[in-house]
Design a protein that fits this description.
- The model is unreliable at 215-220 (pLDDT under 50).
- A 7-stranded mixed beta sheet has the order 1-2-3-4-5-6-7.
- It is α/β, with parallel strands linked by helices.
- Strand 8 and strand 9 form a beta hairpin.
- 21% of the residues lie in helices and 26% in strands.
- It has a single domain (2-95, 105-213), classed as Ribonuclease Z/Hydroxyacylglutathione hydrolase-like (Metallo-beta-lactamase, Chain A, 4-Layer Sandwich), CATH 3.60.15.10.
- The radius of gyration is 16 Å and the shape is globular.
- It is built from 6 helices and 13 strands.
Length: 220
């Protein structure tokens, strides 16, 4: 789906996202969604006038499995590097798991809907990324769009915002969400520990008109 010139999104739902950013040097993927999104990738790239060979790298907003998605397959089959913040590198490699903090309030129908969608898109068995490129706060990556990393710990220790001036967007993963997959409640929400960094992210990208978050996208 085209969201803006040179900015597309994979996935038939806003529950789990993966974004494609293009410039004259190729394509950068922001998050890799779920494994089943792999089958959508050639068609979405073709809609951008690109191909699999144009993808130069995958940048993860954090190391949770529903953002790792097909990253390992792409890395293994195509040699495409996968970037993640240093504090989430072990999580993306499958060496550590996210601590359970309790489910909290939930609506069964919303939770089952998310699990059903995830399961039918390969979300029950997501391979970790065997090799990652660890990055730190403030890094500007040598990838299409020149994505800049903004560390926003909270949702996970290595959660980041990714500012891509080329498409006038900031990708914030689960640090800023507009729908709760456990309750179905809609409305902006941030991880408490990430609030300050979200404000910093907004300030750093004050000329940016688009925010791409998970599980829904909205304009700031």
């Amino acid at each position: 789906m085209e969201l803006a010139p040179s900015l597309h999104r994979l996935g038939g739902s806003t529950l789990v996202n993966s974004y494609l950013v293009a410039d004259g040097s190729g394509v950068t993927l922001i998050d890799a969604g779920l494994p089943g999104y792999w089958n959508q990738l050639p068609g979405e790239l073709a809609a951008m006038g690109r191909s699999i060979d144009d993808v130069r790298g995958i940048v993860l907003t954090h190391g949770d499995t529903d953002h790792v998605g097909f990253a390992e397959r792409f890395r293994r089959e195509r040699g495409v590097p996968v970037y993640v913040h240093t504090a989430d590198a072990a999580r993306a490699r499958g060496e550590v798991t996210k601590p359970m903090s309790g489910w909290g309030p939930m609506k069964v129908s919303s939770l089952l809907g998310f699990l059903w969608y995830s399961g039918r898109n390969g979300g029950l068995r997501i391979p970790p990324v065997a090799e990652v490129v660890a990055v730190d706060d403030g890094a500007t990556l040598d990838l299409p769009g020149s994505p800049r990393v903004i560390h926003m710990p909270g949702h996970t220790p290595g959660s980041v915002g990714i500012h891509v001036p080329a498409v006038d967007a900031v990708f914030v993963g689960d640090s800023f969400t507009t729908r709760n997959v456990l309750t179905g409640a809609e409305g902006p929400a941030t991880s408490a520990e990430s609030d300050m960094r979200v404000r910093i992210c907004r300030s750093a990208a004050s000329s940016t008109s688009t925010s791409c978050s998970s599980p829904c996208r909205r304009s700031w």
